[in-house]
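ugh ok fine here u go
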Amino acid sequence: MRKCLGLLTAGVLLLLQPCSFANAQAPNALERAIGDAQPCRSLKTKVSSFGISVEVGVDKLDSVKIENLELSVNGDAAEASVRGTLACKTSDEALVKGGFSATAEVRLKVDLTTCKTTETSIDIVKTGGRFGDIVKGLETEISGGLRRSLEKNLAKLCEK
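structure:
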């Protein structure tokens, strides 16, 4: 059980799949782990201006801020809750520059005997920035992608 608790903690720290960390600076291990996952990497959107549509990649990590993290264990059941804000921006070479921020609340429950995620929820509670409204419109898709990534990484940790 101690090993599974360690795996749960590590899984919370690796909310998304690991990749190389960009130029953004993060002050603590949890924020660095999220940054390493490059959560903005695949985000693209279409922006219309003066009747012209342009695809814009909001694919550069701008900042990560974790407001709180709570872990609890009751027998073989563990629960984790995280609230934080992620900000992404376009590259410096982008024709249309901008970005967004999204504050999310992530909750998960894990069975420590099987190391399986029994329940997850990811809610985007606030958005901002030039492309914030687009993120709000894609909340279901973004939350689903984050949920799948979280469950996949927890499963990987349990294989070790």
